[in-house]
Amino acid sequence: MAPNLDMLPTLRNGLPVVEPMNPEQVERIHQASLDILEDVGVVFRDPIALDDWKKAGADVRDETVHLDRGLVMELISTIPPRISYHARNSSKNVELGGRNSIFVPMTGAPYMRDIEDNRRAPTIADLATFHKLAHMMPALHSSAHHIVEPMDLVVAHRHLHITYSSMKYSDKIFMGMTTSPKNAEDVLDMCAILFAEDFLENHAVTTGNCNGNSPLVWDQVMLGAMRAFNRRNQPVLCSPFVLGGANTPASTAPAVAQLNAEALSALAYTQVVRKGCPAIYGHFLSTVSMQSGAPMAGTPEISLMNFMIGQMARRYNLPWRTSNLLGGAKILDAQAGYESAMTMMAVLLSGANYLWHSAGWNEAGMHCSIAKFVVDSEVCAMGYRMAEGIRWDDFEEGLAAVRDVGPGGHYLGHPHTQANFQRAFFIPKLFDNNSIEQWKAEGSKDVKERALSQAKRLLAEYEEPKLDPAKDDELRDYIARRSREIPAVDALNNEH
Amino acid sequence: MAPNLDMLPTLRNGLPVVEPMNPEQVERIHQASLDILEDVGVVFRDPIALDDWKKAGADVRDETVHLDRGLVMELISTIPPRISYHARNSSKNVELGGRNSIFVPMTGAPYMRDIEDNRRAPTIADLATFHKLAHMMPALHSSAHHIVEPMDLVVAHRHLHITYSSMKYSDKIFMGMTTSPKNAEDVLDMCAILFAEDFLENHAVTTGNCNGNSPLVWDQVMLGAMRAFNRRNQPVLCSPFVLGGANTPASTAPAVAQLNAEALSALAYTQVVRKGCPAIYGHFLSTVSMQSGAPMAGTPEISLMNFMIGQMARRYNLPWRTSNLLGGAKILDAQAGYESAMTMMAVLLSGANYLWHSAGWNEAGMHCSIAKFVVDSEVCAMGYRMAEGIRWDDFEEGLAAVRDVGPGGHYLGHPHTQANFQRAFFIPKLFDNNSIEQWKAEGSKDVKERALSQAKRLLAEYEEPKLDPAKDDELRDYIARRSREIPAVDALNNEH
């Protein structure tokens, strides 16, 4: 039986959220963040932003913007609480915000583990492979952008080819590069080709990410890219980049107060740029080993902070982003599994909407693994099923089966079982539950080997989603023109 | 620096519980379970139990006991909601019930993966190894009983040596064998030697487990062993053994209704045997692959059912048991990590009290792995830290650090960081977060190899907790006498 590769619809999270703070504690974080914004202020290392803030009535001293609590709350009040995303295949449109969540693969890996599990520098062809896999994975709602960094292309031209690859090999929504303001404009121009300029004005089709430099700094590159997205009415993730203990206090609650202040300052700025434009409360969250300085994944404090950040985002009625299925392992061993699953369970129960880095992330983001990409996608499907919650539609029928079967009987042949077994219990394809004898007979493979075989099968079966040839030509012409215009030498920009 | 091997105190769970059912849905399950108990009834395959039930006023027809809802609710109302466990080292006493939870290692494995990761039949010496490790793991609050089955001993005498090993190599609480009524009596006689008979009368020192045969059957061996524990006032787990879809309806809500009816019937029976004796709402929960019949671990439905069962146990104000860190993988690969961590996160957030099978379980319980035992124990410590919840005691100091450091600074040298870094963020010992260069320099080891090295170090450092030589002699004499009395040929009894 061929696997069903239909994309799952937007996750409507049916489980209650985990809220470890009482309303007073939420308010305590909220007020602490507003105090930070008023008293300490936030550095916007960008003349345009400083000028914008002055015009908006903020108290600007050199590069530090002191934000009055009333101004912040007024500004963020115009951010839409929900976003409807439009894919080039409209059957793959998704919703974000409230109880609606989507799974998005990892991005930004400078290395990959390839189809033979070799760790090496990725190429644009490898990126296409990941876009194809993202296209085929039912639980992934988006194909992202530079899942791996195409090292065979000059930095200055990469964003063009990355964007094209996102658009070409998958018909799901995708992310847009924000490595510079001009790069962001290129991405949005290409979106305008794919969807039409006026379509962008009224429909979210891509997502940009703007990382903050914690503590309390936003830089020119990120702000410029953010503005490009804001002006075209495309959503941006406002993501403080938190390495807990290194660039925040060594304590979860004050770290969240700082992160919340940082997110609010950028979210407020999006509304200075364009009132009513979509924006997403973001963050990248790690904790740091105080012994080595290394970032860690799946730690208890990351889970707790995700629960808390969810409460803050809901306090402001904003859609929010987190990072899913992170791992610090160098290989797809049990460590990667434990870390990734702990992260996923916490973020699903935190109620996060934009579940970035949902597939492939290992080695603290230094590589994307094909094997892990495939396994993570299946684990996301398991998480999706859990988060949907409990089905009650066949409760009475199930109880009738209890009466039919009676003490000491079994259910395997019962009509209710026959009618419901396919949907009743999730059966993972990559997780082996056979006997050890069967497992040995099949070659004693670990899940990594099974996943790589699965990836090979999927890629062999991949069918490219049809792209209008006229648009395809127009996109290629755009890339050719911009490649001529943009000097081939540039600085490397990273994004997480 | 030598690792701190002090046992963590009872987990006081500070996170809210995940409750996917509204009060009406809890009531719907409750009423459905009572309907099952009244109308379908439960088979007690045991003449003594049938006689007890008749005397208690139940409607007994052949072996089927129909339980009036009023009788069930009256009986379970006398079960203590909390249990204080006493260890032979009183600094390792723990509490169970309400928000108090304990981690207990796996039991019942017929195979093991040893210190070289070879899968083989275990011996009584191997069991001692696991008891030593359980003794040394801070997050484990108990040493359990037959973590692995000592295959080198005749079945009929195993319970004696297993119990002695539990008592000898660890001074934490332990579990008591329930493989037959007489075996249970032996365990309790040995507990009376270790603690004194009248101490048992007023203090919980061990835990028995009684598995049900779902659907709706309790057998003579389990009921006889249960009575032995009830009479000596020692807690029993009343555990329906659920393979969802095979011995329950293929649907989570009616499956929980059946499981709840089964648990209530045994819990009620404990109070027929001895009013007021401690008992724990138990279950073993798996879902079954409808393709192969294989039990699965870490599936979304297991998580959902754990959330639901927690709500039912709280509805009755009863302490409850679940299974933690289960895996179906044949080796300690990423599958085992994903499955185990998904299970742990769900059960911690379900509010379960007695977290059995918290370390070592893989291959659907067919083996206990030394490597996984050590890794799971560390993951339990991570889960413990998460479940403790958020610390607020240094919130104002943390905010003061934000003001001190200001935009663009860093926290590594700040006094608040210096004072708090050791407790602020959990740093796993077995999870590698170093750079790939460092990891390669250290031999490119996966977490399994690191765990086996760690296990070797721990066992080399193990110090046996002092046992009163007079009691030790008395225990040995008891075993010698009973070994003479019990014929060496017997049927194999399993327990999960």
How do the strands and helices of this protein lay out in sequence?
The structure is a homodimer of 496-residue chains.
Chain A: E1 11-12, H1 23-40, E2 42-45, H2 47-56, E3 59-61, E4 64-66, H3 69-76, E5 83-85, E6 94-96, E7 100-103, E8 111-113, E9 119-120, H4 124-136, H5 155-169, E10 174-176, H6 181-195, H7 197-202, E11 206-213, E12 217-219, H8 220-231, E13 236-244, H9 252-273, E14 279-281, E15 284-288, E16 295-296, H10 300-315, E17 321-323, H11 334-350, E18 354-356, E19 361-362, E20 367-369, H12 370-388, H13 395-405, H14 415-424, H15 436-441, H16 447-461, H17 469-485
Parallel strand pairs in A: 2-12, 7-18, 8-20, 10-11, 11-13, 13-14, 13-15, 17-18
Antiparallel strand pairs in A: 1-7, 2-4, 3-4, 5-6, 8-9, 15-16, 19-20
Helix pairs in contact in A: 1-9, 3-9, 4-5, 5-6, 5-17, 6-8, 6-17, 9-10, 10-11, 11-12, 12-16
Task: Give a structural overview.
2 copies of one chain form a homodimer. In chain A, a hairpin with a 2-residue loop joins strand 3 (59-61) and strand 4. Chain A starts with 10 loop residues before the first strand and ends in an 11-residue tail after the last helix. Chain A is 46% helix and 14% strand. The first copy, chain A, has 17 helices and 20 strands. In chain A, the strands form 5 sheets. In chain A, strands 10, 11, 13, 14, 15 and 16 form a 6-stranded mixed sheet that branches. In chain A, helix 5 (155-169) runs antiparallel to helix 17, helix 10 (300-315) packs parallel to helix 11 and helix 12 (370-388) packs across helix 16. Chain A is of the alpha/beta class and 496 residues long. The first copy, chain A, is globular and about 75 Å long. At the A-B interface, helix 1, helix 9, strand 16, helix 10 and helix 11 of A face helix 1, helix 9, strand 16, helix 10 and helix 11 of B.
